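Researcher: I'd like a structural prediction for the single chain below. Treat it as a standalone chain; there are no partners to consider.
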Amino acid sequence: MKVAVRAINWSLGMACWWDEWDVSTRRKFWAAMYDHGRFIRDNLEWSPTDRYNHYFGDIVGLAVVAATIGNHQEAEEWGAFAAREIAREILGQFAPDGLNREQSTAYHRLMVELATIGVRACEVLNRPVPAACRDRLAAAYRAMRVLGGETGQMPLVGDNDSASVLRVLPREDGETSYLWAIGARLLPEQALDSGPVSPEYLLLFPPPNVMPGTPVAQPAKVSLVGQALADSGFFVLGDSRNRMILRCGPLTYRPVGAHRHMDQLSFSLWVDGFELLVDPGQFCYSAWPERGMRYRKSSAHNTVEVDGLPQSWAYQPPGGYCYTLFGDPRPRCERFQVDSGHATFVGVHSGYRRLRRGGDHRRICEFDATRLTWEVRDEVNCAADEGYRWYFHVHPAAVITEIAQGWRIERGSVGLELAWQRPSMVRSVILDGAYAPRYGIEHRASTLVVFQPAASSAVAEFQLKAVTLQDQP
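Model: Treating it as a single chain, here is the predicted structure.
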C-alpha cells in the first residue's frame, strides 16, 4: 500500500508542477511510475476474506499509475484490472449505509479519499464504475455528513493512524469538510450537499479562475433531531450542532475486531458545535503496544464497565499490537425513533454474559430538542463482585468541575451539566486521562469515573444538559 500511496502522491505532484519540469525530470517520473505499477501489480495485498484498506489502496494506486502513463500495453491491462476491482471493492468495503466496514471513522475518511481518487482515475481511463458503485460512494459521503454535522468534524471512533492520500493542508484527523465539494462534483447525479472549494478539490478538478474558499454551494442545514447509520451501528441524537453520537454495531465485517475498539453503547457529545465528551482516539499501534491497547479498552470510552473488565477480550502478541478482538458482544439496536423535537435510542450488548453471573447491558437515551437534554438510563443485568464504573472522557480543551447537582463541563462559552439521579448510591473521582487527536500525539485530559458498589445488578439514570455560559471578564 505504501508504494501505491507514493504513486498517488507523485501523480498529484505532477498535476501541480508538470509545466515546470524539464525533459530529464519527466523521463525519470515516467520510469518511476512504471516501476511502481509493476511492483503494485506483482504484490497485491489480496485475501479471499480479509480485503480491506491495504488492498483497496493497491488497486487505486494501480489505476492512478495506469491513468498517468496512458497509452501503454501494460498500463492498459493495469487500468482494466484496477477498474474492475475498484467497482467490486467499493460495494464490498462500504456498508449499504455508506460507512466503511472497518468501523473506524478515521479509516472511513481515508477510504472515501481512496474511493474518490479511484473513481476519478477510472473516468480518466474511460472505464467508469457502475451506477451501483456511485450510489455506494455517495452513501459514504452522506455518512460523513451524518457523523460530522455542520462543522464536518467526526468523532475519532476506532483506530487511527492519521493516514491520508489527499490532504494538502494540515487538518484534524476527523475533519471532512474539505471533501464536501469534491463529492458533489464527482457525483453530480447524487445531489450531495456541497461546500467551499478546497485545495484538494483543485487537484482533482482544476477549473479556471476558481480559488480555494470559493463556495460551490452552501451545505444544507441539518434540522433533524435524529439520524442513524443502522447497518454500521452509529446513531445520532440531536441536530448538526448539538448531538450525541452513540455506538451500537458490529466489530467489523471480519470475524475479529481489526480496527474496532471495545466501545459498545459509548457516545461522544457536542454542544453548539464543540465536542465536550470524546472518544479518546488512538495513540499508537505496535510502536508502543501497551499504550495503544489502553485506548481500545472499554474504560477508554464513555460506557459502563463491570468489575474492571472490558466488554470483549483481546489477543495481543508479545511485543505487538492487538488487532484481534474475541467475544463479540453482539450489540443490537432495539429501538430508534425520531419524532418532532424528540429522539429515542435503546441499545443492548451481551459482552458480559461471559462472566459467571453475567448478563446484558442496556442503554436508553432520550433527546429533547427544546430543552437540549439527553436523558440516559443504564440497566446492567449482570452481577458485579467489585462494582460498576461509568466513564466520561472530557475533551482536553474543556474543564470539568463538581457542582451541587453533579458536574459541569465547560469549553469556552458552552457547557454541559451532568446530573446523577440518586447520587447517594455512587461515589466519583476525576482522574487524569488522555486524548489522541492524531497518531503519536497525546494530550492530557480529564476523566470522570462514577462508581457503584457490587450488587446482583445495577440501574443508573443521569441527565446531560447543554448550557450557555456567561463570558468570563
